[in-house]
Each structure stands twice: as structure tokens, then as C-alpha cells.
Amino acid sequence: MINLILLGLPGAGKGTASESLVDRYHLAHISTGDMFREAISQKTPVGLEAKGYIDKGNLVPDEVTAKLVEERLTQKDTQKGFILDGFPRTTIQAELLEKITAKLNKPLTRVISIEVHEDVLIKRLSSRFICRTCGATYNKLSKPTKVEGVCDRCGGHDFYQREDDQPSVVKNRLRVNEKMNTPLRDFYHQKGLLAQVNGEQKPEKVFAEIDQILSQD
Ligand code: AMP
């Protein structure tokens, strides 16, 4: 059973690693960022509440986010294992998650932190683009589509840049997330769950390192 958290600042490659992990291990991919974006586009109450925070690059309140994750973890597809991508982001969220996983009897088996320097992240975020049809994420610098203008996954031609990947918002997002990142790593280090990988390598290499860690567990 793999119940995994991927830690890492925005742009570290959590989403990309998750795509490979889903293919290999058939885990449920739980990205709070994706869930919020979906909620915003559906104009649900959670989406309306989250929008103001997300547009500015701030964090949505812990309780709102934890509730969303708890509901998601009760769904059937998480029984064979899951990846949490973008949650927890604060130690309070990590503590809330402990209660949730205990209640649902789905204990964490591993926490992997993908490490990337800030200057690399700024470059990556501003060159990230997404397929509007299937949501696959690419990067002009490090992960372009195989054929220019055509999505590798679904063949779509329509791409967009995330609102919060605009340079004016990116700096605040990194600042907000960085402050919480070290305490979060310490939290899981103390629990003996933490492993770290170098996220400045090619996506295949990052995935290979993660895969090796998981295969030794
Ligand atoms: P992401 O796609 O993970 O970069 O998330 C996009 C935005 O959604 C973040 O900048 C936050 O505003 C919000 N968000 C995602 N996950 C969380 C979380 N665990 N706690 C609070 N806010 C979150």
C-alpha cells in the first residue's frame, strides 16, 4: 500500500511526478490546487470562498482545505493508495491530516520532498502551460510537448497559462509557501517518513529516484 505525500514548492514537479506515479501504481491523485480550480470553475461554495485567496497567491484557510481533503479521502478510489499533491502545506494542516488518516484508517506510508532552488522555480512557473482539454502540464523550458502546439496526452491544441503563474503572483506564492516548507519537512522527518529527491533533474530522473524510494519501502 502506498499512501504518499509529495512535498515541494510550486513548480517543483509534484504534478509531473504524480502523473508518472498514477501510471505506474494506479494511485488516486489528490491535488488540492486542481480541486480548488475545479470548484472555482463550477462556482461551488468552496470555489467562491477559495478564489480570493488563490488569485492573490495566498493560502486558502486550513480548515476549508482539510475538509475538502477529508471528503476526497472517503472516496473509493483511494482504497488502493493515494498521492497527496499540494496538501498539507502548513503544520496545522499536517496535524489535521493525522486526525483524518487515523479516523479513516489510511495511514501515511511515505513523504517525499522534491527539492528545487527558488531561482529555478521562478523560471519554471513563468514558462508553465496547461492543456485546456485534459489538464496536462508542460513547460517551455523543461517539458515541452513532443510536437509543438499539440498535447502529448490528448492531442488537444488549446493551451493556457495559470492565472497564478503570472510573474506578479508567483513571488508571493513562493514566499508564502517557503515559510511553511521547512517546518513541514521537519514534522515528517521526526516521524521517520521523509525522503528527499533532487528536483532539478529531468522529470524521468526525478521519477526514477522516487520510484526507487517507494520500491524499498
Ligand atoms: P497549487 O496548484 O498546488 O499551486 O495550488 C494553487 C493554489 O490553491 C495555492 O496557491 C493556494 O491558494 C491554493 N491551495 C492549494 N493547496 C492548498 C493547501 N493545501 N492549503 C491552502 N491553500 C491551498
Could you describe the 3D structure shown?
By secondary structure, the protein is α/β, with parallel strands linked by helices. The protein has one domain (2-118, 172-216): P-loop containing nucleotide triphosphate hydrolases (Rossmann fold). It contains eight helices and eight strands; from the N terminus they run βαβαααβαβαβββαβα. It has a five-stranded parallel β-sheet with strand order 2-3-1-4-8, sandwiched between helices. A hairpin with a 5-residue loop joins strand 5 (128-131) and strand 6. Helix 1 crosses helix 8, helix 4 (62-73) packs parallel to helix 5 (91-104) and helix 6 (118-126) crosses helix 7. The radius of gyration is 16 Å and the shape is globular. The chain binds adenosine monophosphate. Adenosine monophosphate binds next to helix 2 and helix 3.
CATH-derived architecture: 3-Layer(aba) Sandwich
Summarize the biggest pleated sheet: 5 strands, parallel
Structural class: alpha/beta
Give the low-confidence spans. Answer: none
End-to-end Cα distance, whole Å, is 10 Å
Q: What ligand species are in this complex?
A: adenosine monophosphate
- CATH superfamily (homologous) name: P-loop containing nucleotide triphosphate hydrolases
